[in-house]
Amino acid sequence: MKDLIIDPSRIAETVKTKTYQLANIVLSPFFASNKRSSSRRIINILLLPFICFAFLLVFPLRPPLPPSYAEEHAIERALMRELQMPSAVEATDGKYVSFAPIKETAYEPYHVVDSILPIPLQWPMISSRIPMSALLDSIGSGFEAFYRKRRAVPLSHLKQVCSSSETAVVRLGTMDREEAMHENGIHKMERMVKELMDPKLPRCVQVEHNPFDRDFFESRSPIDLYETLHTSPVLKHFSFSTRVLSIINRSLELLSPDSTPYPEEIEHVKNPRKVLPWKNVLALHLRKSSDSHYCTSLGERNAPFVGFNKLSGLPGNENIPPSSDMPKPAVLGLYRAKCDPETLEIIARARRMRANHPLLNTLYILSNADYNFIEETKRWLVSDGWHTIVTSTDIGSLWSDQEVLEAVDTEIALFGAFE
Ligand SMILES: *[C@@H]1O[C@H](CO)[C@@H](O)[C@H](O)[C@H]1NC(C)=O
């Protein structure tokens, strides 16, 4: 009986003694005070980095260290070697253009944070840049050869083959803002192509400003360009990386039990993938703005809202921008509900979608909101009768998944789209 009594003060005493002994063993060599041991002290201090190194070798810090992307880096290095072969078009009459400021689309690493360190000083640890091929497969798949076009190359390759004297920096589509808002998107694109094809330009061209900025997406241009874009090789052969697809593959049973899994090898070059919508999934994008001023500013200038949302096949944005006789408070409320919705508005919206599409039973939530907001919204939606509610953190739980979840979100949203 006596043995079972746990005395907290005795345990604390034992822990204190043990800690003291341990600290003594580890630290005493560094603080030995007599003269003879001072050289030993220096040796011990010099040994410290090796002890730390050996410790890291035995107990590697992963997680929380971010993934290494070794496979993707190896693929990109192999590609660069291939591009330098005499038989490669790129090696013989290489003309290059870098769209580096369009960070998310140029073939350069995807920058998560601007830092020269590979892992920025923040917690939890993340990579400061991710190889583009970890997100997108089509960036290096070589589909361009199918159309006898030069392929996209990594920025590092471009820097190797173009000296600064043969590189021109250009600014595409510089125009008056008012004019830019009203110019037809196709004209805008043709004008930019003409600027790039200018024979006076040297072999290598660097675009220094992103022409696809907020003004572009608020103008009619994306709608004008939609037909051209969606039949273009770039989109027809578009695919996220195997890393991304296999995350979804693992959870297919939960998301859409009837759909076929992704093939092991992505073979979209010869057979572009056809996306068949998952009839049971509603992808719900809950954007939480850290900049509350942005949502108000949309209302204040009756913004036409973001381009592709105005495609006629997409439901729900018919009332944006609102008619000019709507009172200002109502306008601001309308934009706030679209831009920064509250839980009740989210539930009502999901309910309206389900009323129009009775096969819906699964919600996929794409959100940058914090954990508590998402969990609370999930609870409300469950009580509103949704059978399955999933977010990217539910399906991408491995540490190697963590940094590509935005691509997972986008791929699933593609399936959850309506016709
Ligand atoms: C998807 O899963 C199937 C089997 O369920 C497997 O054969 C295939 O290789 C997986 N694809 C990817 C991209 O992981």
Structure description:
The chain is mainly α and 419 residues long. Helices cover 45% and strands 7% of the residues. The chain contains 19 helices and eight strands. The protein has a three-stranded parallel sheet, with no helix packed on it. A three-stranded parallel sheet has the order 6-7-8, sandwiched between helices. The protein has a two-stranded antiparallel ribbon with strand order 2-3. Helix 14 packs across helix 15. The longest helix is centred in the N-terminal third of the chain and has 24 residues. The chain is globular. The structure holds 2-acetamido-2-deoxy-beta-D-glucopyranose (NAG). 2-acetamido-2-deoxy-beta-D-glucopyranose (NAG) binds next to helix 12.
Quick overview of this protein structure:
Helix content is 45%, strand content 7%.
| Number of E-state strands | 8
> Structural class per helix/strand content?
mainly alpha
* Rg (CA only): 28 Å
pLDDT averaged residue by residue: 81
The helix content, as a percent range, equals: 40-55%
List of distinct ligands in this structure: 2-acetamido-2-deoxy-beta-D-glucopyranose
Shape: globular
Q: What's the arrangement of strands in the largest beta sheet?
A: 1-5-4
Low-confidence stretches: none
Instruction: Give the quaternary arrangement of the chains.
Output: single chain
- Distance N to C terminus: 72 Å
Number of helices: 19
